[in-house]
## 1
Amino acid sequence: MMEPELFQTWSIIMKPLLAIGIIMKPLLAIGIILTTLAGSTNAENTTQLEPLYSAQFDDTYITIEVQSNGCTQPEDFTILASGKGGEDFSTLGIRRDQPDTCRAAARLIRLQLELPPALAALKEAYRLDNLFVSKSPFSDTANTGDTHDRPNQTDQH
């Protein structure tokens, strides 16, 4: 059993600490919630577009060249389109939704993505907002590796 003096000393020290803990827990919880909400809002407002090494369009497809570590597939990407066309250019962005988590050496691959029907039907000019990157870090043979094009598809459009 605790001595009365020791108990009083412990009580004097612990009561303020417990009071601070009772106040701080809700504040900490509120801070975590606000930080999480702010982070998700920022993520929704800033869409990270995939850096492209080349892009070619035809009537219904866009063929892009992107960096891959061995697991990149066309299904990993979403084409984002906005604008009205005409004088207000429609803008197009290509976003990678699934990261390539494979560990193979980075290389460039060609992927063929189907344009959204509304954009494929648009005969007006549109702008691609993705960053274009130089192919210089990759060897000349890197572009002859895996492709995910339609069968018998040539690069000449």
Note: Residues 4-45 form the longest helix (42 residues).
## 2
Amino acid sequence: MRGKIIQINSDGYERCINIECYDSKVGAIWCYFLDKEYLEPGQEMEFMPKGAEVDIDVSVVFVNKYEVVDDSATMEMRQPIEQSSYVQVKALVVQIIDEWTMVCNIGVLENVVVEFETKVLGVNVGQKLSFEGELQMVIQE
């Protein structure tokens, strides 16, 4: 996914980055990003400053609760906390990688890797799940 960095909140090695995605169906999202460069709050990143265009992959991490929901549930992603990568999701399971990881379609975002903090039991491909976590970005090389 391609987008432009709108805002960066830094705290040590962790970043919360607001990206305006060029796909108008996605819009602006806040993502968690772990960097190898240490920054003080308010300090800008050298390799990826505000205004930079980036190609990213997104995933959902730190998921510790999930629930199978009805097939009629609408797939969606909400970020109700301002300037936070926290995300509430309803998604369709398209692949189970292992007991801790699966791939889901979340509305307009397809093939999103979802990493759970606990083993995922009783979930099958084709089912819809509701869960909460952090939206994480990785820069495409």
Note: The beta strands are 2-21, 28-39, 53-63, 66-69, 76-78, 86-96, 101-106, 109-116, 128-139.
